[in-house]
Specification:
single chain, 374 residues, mainly beta, Thrombin, subunit H, Phage tail protein beta-alpha-beta fold, three-stranded mixed sheet, 21 strands, 15% helix
């Protein structure tokens, strides 16, 4: 690996342990994709011989899916970062008839895949708000080092048992994601901070915090990106209108929901103009709190008008760019400089190379901050 960068691979049934040297030497490439509000995935590519121990290993993996864990830890300049803690879902072997060697590709997803195995439809949750249901569901996976981090809904909706009793629908993952969608929240499993530990986050897509060092373009020797392109789509701006029904007159009252949140403040000084209005007629049948949460969920989708895509070399950047956080951009001009939210990051690690491709987003043009951290 590169000087100052070391990749640690751990595998095992249930509990991952460092793999033998023979396995690490056979590893050709590791790819990890992390995106906000989505399941993370990984892919490992090995070069193996026909009689390699990896063939036996993958045979054992096939007998007990998907409980074989894979943990990838990248150490950059002495600082370890858990890139992935997941389970193997698929492996594929492609033989080369000319060399007598094969390419073994192992792919999988983060530990949220364990929540998508069995259905628990019909399990009741009397007098439990959504956040309590999520905490109870995630607690079942404590054996995998999964700790729930649940943020209460903005509009508290406590079901009264004499009125209705919520019941589980589908798998744990499907039900938790559905609850997050109704509240305008996201759900994902974030690995770390130590190998074997994971945080199951259910809450708003938070866009505040300490920004990561800036991505530089058009700055000569200070450039630390290989490519960075920007785009702007004003048609994404939508004003959702929900309907709250008066319990006495049964008359629906329209209520516009602005795209504003204390946990997702605007990053651009000039937001896009209002492109369209969406009337959410189905909310008239919901409770007032549930209708407001649905409106917030729809409003959150229309914030990201300015986007950017690019790639960088970790050695040049000096650290690992992390998804689900803020980062600064410098040298792109007045319209596109400033802070952005890192929507997605794909890590690609080969022997002698560690590169990242990323996607950035924010609500408008022109930075609201005069400076960004270097």
């Amino acid at each position: 690996m590169l000087k100052g960068i070391r990749l640690t691979l751990m595998m095992g049934p249930g509990m991952a342990v460092p793999v033998p040297k023979l396995v690490t030497e056979a590893l050709r490439e590791a790819t990890v994709t992390v995106a906000a509000g989505q399941r993370s995935g990984f892919q490992l590519v090995f070069d193996i011989a026909s009689k390699s121990i990896l063939n036996t290993l993958m045979t054992l993996v096939a007998q007990a899916p998907p409980v074989v864990r894979v943990i990838l830890v990248a150490t950059v300049n002495g600082s370890p970062d858990v890139l992935m803690d997941g389970v193997v879902l698929q492996h594929r072997i492609v033989p080369d008839v000319n060399t007598g060697r094969s390419t073994l590709t192992v792919s999988g997803e983060d530990l949220s895949a364990m929540m998508d195995l069995f259905e628990f439809t019909g399990f009741p949750y009397p007098a439990m708000p959504p956040e309590a249901r999520v905490a109870l569901i995630v607690a079942k996976y404590a054996m995998f080092g999964m700790i729930p981090l649940v943020i209460p809904s903005i509009f508290f909706d406590l079901p009264i048992p004499t009125d209705r009793i919520p019941v589980h629908q589908g798998t744990d993952l499907a039900y938790v994601q559905d609850l997050a969608k109704q509240a305008g929240y996201v759900f994902f499993v974030d690995p770390g901070p130590l190998p074997g530990m994971n945080t199951a986050y259910w809450g708003p897509d938070i866009r505040v915090g300490v920004p990561q060092p800036a991505l530089n373009v058009n700055m000569d020797s200070f450039n630390n990106t290989e490519q960075l392109t920007f785009s702007y789509d004003a048609s994404k701006s939508t004003l959702p209108v929900v309907y709250i029904q008066n319990s006495l007159t049964k008359i629906p009252i329209p209520l516009p929901i602005p795209a504003a949140s204390l946990l997702s403040p605007p990053l651009g000084a000039i937001p896009p103009g209002l492109a369209n209005i969406k009337f959410m007629n189905e909310t008239a049948k919901m409770s007032p709190m549930k209708a407001l949460n649905a409106g917030l969920a729809e409003a959150a989708k229309s914030q990201d008008a300015a986007t950017a895509e690019g790639s960088l070399d970790v050695v040049r950047y000096g650290r690992i760019l992390k998804a689900r956080g803020l980062v600064g951009v410098r040298g792109a001009g007045l319209a596109y400089d400033g802070l952005y939210y890192v929507k997605s990051v794909t890590h690609k690690i080969r022997r002698g190379e560690f590169k990242q491709s990323f996607g950035l987003t924010r609500n408008g043009l022109v930075s609201i901050t005069p400076r960004v951290p270097a």
